[in-house]
């Protein structure tokens, strides 16, 4: 029987397409306004371009693509031959194009692309940068000119999400598999017997698993269509997934493992590798961690036996490409390009076969959600798709691998921050659809698949990991009670750990023997300041608004100094804040005074941990306005980063402006080491 809020699949896909389009447009608008309003030199300074380049060499990379090496133009290069300072990174999508002449200041992205060629940066060195060109004859278009390279908005990810949503949109209802029907609530998930989940034990590979991890694994193994593994901070989600994958292999299942980012996938490859199973990691080798390269498809296609036959053609292509540069005759060049075209075709055919054999013979394939949609897996079918960090992924992204499987296991924590959305429209607009308005209502791009499934089928489809291996018990208490139904338990090894117990010499002081400290800045002496945040990248006056609080920054500085004086190493300390202006205010001074200390935004620190974390909340005003600080999931991330020491700096009066914050303040007033900083002593510092 279908739950009452079953979703009409075509309407869902239509809604997603509209939301994705709005998001893409806002991203493109941001980049194109930067490119057309800024001079090439200013774009370079802003980290978005590298100017004055020439083509220094080229070779054939994976997929028969041409990889060009670009170095500084000799006429303008510095003496040491190094590239000027820039912000282009491996993996960036760029266009390589002829430099505009001095007078042609106004540039449009379209014009850049028509003159040049798009590609992906595969390597960045101090004297050169390497780009894999998208077009087959791209090298022909960029050779022999003074070039520049400009970073573009990444619309490739959107293309894949759009394709998969269009497939869903067009699918006829008789084509829906029972798996797809469950994911949209047209059918309920098959029940999983309690006896199976709680009963007979499996033969565990990892004997250290705790009971909640074991239960989650048994549950995921026995669910037929869908299982959610809910992993609050520090509860060992990845640890659990590794065992789950090994157990699935024992059952002879074929598994596709995905995550939203390369690092989330590499993390799993690194931990699976010691188990000596055959795994293939898909993805551009330039974007992978060095430690996982041996499992990457690119390396395997060069080293495996089947690869030799591909290599022969590659060598021939490289020789031909080198000969182009030697010949001046246009006719000869044309003939060589003709030969290259043929060789590329041959190369691609051989490579496809080799890749097919490698992937087909592998029981575990790992890729980013986006990467799972590549040509290499087009004909592959999997028994299960496992998605780690699922609450950080857009739903449309998850569908890229999902149409290749008949079961999904999602691991994540919907009570931490969702993926970042740029367009306000996609965050707030509830797109109306003709057919199924009620079911789609409330759906935004921020609604993840994890959220939606939980809402659709209820908590019966999830199991929560409950032992956490990160925080002191006192740090854990509030998030556990407020967000995780008081179910979190601190593991014995961490529940009473203090800074003074660090494995190096730390003195016992009031700061190193107390896990939870609250500096209450109430009273109006620590006012917030409104800062106009000029978008530095833009350099064109695009302005946002952020807040800062100088007096809170002074408390941070004093506290860090005290910790370091007691012996705590700066690289065990992080200062985090929701506001960029506050970061900007503190960063330089703290980094210079305490090399190794980390500063970051709360959003940027998700997934990380530190021994000591200082959170400056910044807001302090008479009208009790807390703005985006009121978001529970952001506060949850902020308060669950530390292992041994959490220090909060905030104005208890202002923070009454939000219910969750108010309860947190009450908790801190009752359970923390409460301190009232004095302005005069801070001023005297
Ligand atoms: N059963 C266990 N016994 C002992 N330590 C464990 C166990 N499970 C996880 N841990 C430890 O907990 C820490 C976090 O685990 P892991 O890295 O797997 O979690 P994660 O999913 O990456 O992070 P998080 O759960 O914080 O999102 C690691 O140091 C890991 O060794």
From TrEMBL:
Keywords assigned by UniProt, alphabetized: ATP-binding, Cytoplasm, DNA-binding, Helicase, Hydrolase, Nucleotide-binding, Nucleus
GO CC term, one of those recorded: nucleus
Enzyme Commission (EC) number: 3.6.4.12
Organism expressing this protein natively: Hyaloscypha hepaticicola
Presence of keyword ATP-binding: yes
AAA+ ATPase domain boundaries: 223-460
Localization annotation: Cytoplasm; Nucleus
UniProt GO MF annotations: 5'-3' DNA helicase activity; ATP binding; DNA binding; hydrolase activity; RNA binding
Enzyme class, spelled out: hydrolase
Chief location category: cytoplasm
Family classification: Belongs to the DNA2/NAM7 helicase family.
PANTHER family: DNA-BINDING PROTEIN SMUBP-2, DNA2/NAM7 HELICASE FAMILY MEMBER
Protein name per UniProt: DNA helicase
Family annotation (Pfam families): AAA_11, AAA_12, SMUBP-2_HCS1_1B
Domain of life of the source: Eukaryota
Location of the Helicase ATP-binding domain: 205-478
Known catalytic reactions: ATP + H2O = ADP + phosphate + H(+)
């Amino acid at each position: 029987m279908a739950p009452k809020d079953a979703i009409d699949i075509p309407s869902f896909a239509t809604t997603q397409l509209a939301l994705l389009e709005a998001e893409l447009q806002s991203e493109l608008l941001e980049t194109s306004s930067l490119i057309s309003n800024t001079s090439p030199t200013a774009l370079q300074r802003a980290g978005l371009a590298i100017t004055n380049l020439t083509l220094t060499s080229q070779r054939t990379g994976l997929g028969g693509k041409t990889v060009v090496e670009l170095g500084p133009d000799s006429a303008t290069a510095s003496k040491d031959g190094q590239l000027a300072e820039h912000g282009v990174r491996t993996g960036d999508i760029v266009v390589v194009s002829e430099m505009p002449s001095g007078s042609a200041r106004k540039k449009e992205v379209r014009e850049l692309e028509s003159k040049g060629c798009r590609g992906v940066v595969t390597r960045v060195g101090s004297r050169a940068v390497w780009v894999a060109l998208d077009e087959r004859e791209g090298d022909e278009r960029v050779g022999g000119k003074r070039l520049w390279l400009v970073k573009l908005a990444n619309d490739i990810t959107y293309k894949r999400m759009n394709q998969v949503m269009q497939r869903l949109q067009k699918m006829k209802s008789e084509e829906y598999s029972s798996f797809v029907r469950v994911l949209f609530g047209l059918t309920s998930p098959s029940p999983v017997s309690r006896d199976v989940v709680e009963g007979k034990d499996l033969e565990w590979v990892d004997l250290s698993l705790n009971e909640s991890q074991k239960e989650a694994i048994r549950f995921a193994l026995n669910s037929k269509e869908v299982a959610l593994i809910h992993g609050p901070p520090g509860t060992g989600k990845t640890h659990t997934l590794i065992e789950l994958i090994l157990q699935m292999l024992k059952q002879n299942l074929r598994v596709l493992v995905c995550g939203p980012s390369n690092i989330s996938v590499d993390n799993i490859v690194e931990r699976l590798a010691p188990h000596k199973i055959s795994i293939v990691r898909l993805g551009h080798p330039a974007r992978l961690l060095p430690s996982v390269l041996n499992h990457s498809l690119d390396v395997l296609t060069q080293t495996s036996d089947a690869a030799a036959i591909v290599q022969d053609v590659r060598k021939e292509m490289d020789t031909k490409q080198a000969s182009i540069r030697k010949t001046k005759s246009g006719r000869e060049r044309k003939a060589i390009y003709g030969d290259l075209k043929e060789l590329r075709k041959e190369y691609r055919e051989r490579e496809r076969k080799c890749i097919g054999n490698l992937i087909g013979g592998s029981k575990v394939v790992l890729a980013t959600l986006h990467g799972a949609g590549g040509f290499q897996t087009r004909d592959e079918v999997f028994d299960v798709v496992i998605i780690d960090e699922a609450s950080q992924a857009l739903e449309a992204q998850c569908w890229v691998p999902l149409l290749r499987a008949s079961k999904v296991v999602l691991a994540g924590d919907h009570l931490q921050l969702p993926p970042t959305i740029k367009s306000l429209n996609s965050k707030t607009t509830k797109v109306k659809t003709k057919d199924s308005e009620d079911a789609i209502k409330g759906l935004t791009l921020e609604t993840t698949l994890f959220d939606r499934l939980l809402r659709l089928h209820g908590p019966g489809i999830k199991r929560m990991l409950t032992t956490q291996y990160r925080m002191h018990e006192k740090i854990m208490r509030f998030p556990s009670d407020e967000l995780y139904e008081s179910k979190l338990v601190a593991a014995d090894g961490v529940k009473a750990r203090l800074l003074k117990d660090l494995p190096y010499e730390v003195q016992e002081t009031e700061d190193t023997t107390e896990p939870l400290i609250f500096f209450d800045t109430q009273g109006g002496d620590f006012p917030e300041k409104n800062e106009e945040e000029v978008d530095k990248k833009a350099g064109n006056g695009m302005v946002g608004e952020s807040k800062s609080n100088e007096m809170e920054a002074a408390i941070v500085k004093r506290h860090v100094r005290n910790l370091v004086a007691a012996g705590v190493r700066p690289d065990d300390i992080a200062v985090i804040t929701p506001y960029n202006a506050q970061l900007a205010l503190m960063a330089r001074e703290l980094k210079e005074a305490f090399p190794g200390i980390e500063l970051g935004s709360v959003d940027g620190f998700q997934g990380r941990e530190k021994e000591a974390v200082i959170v400056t909340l910044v807001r302090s005003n008479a009208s009790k306005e807390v703005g985006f600080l009121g978001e529970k999931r952001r506060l949850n991330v902020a308060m669950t980063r530390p292992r041994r020491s959490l220090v909060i700096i905030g104005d208890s009066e202002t923070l009454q402006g939000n219910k969750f914050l108010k309860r947190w303040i009450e908790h801190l007033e009752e359970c923390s080491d409460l301190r009232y900083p004095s302005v005069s002593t801070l001023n005297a510092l």
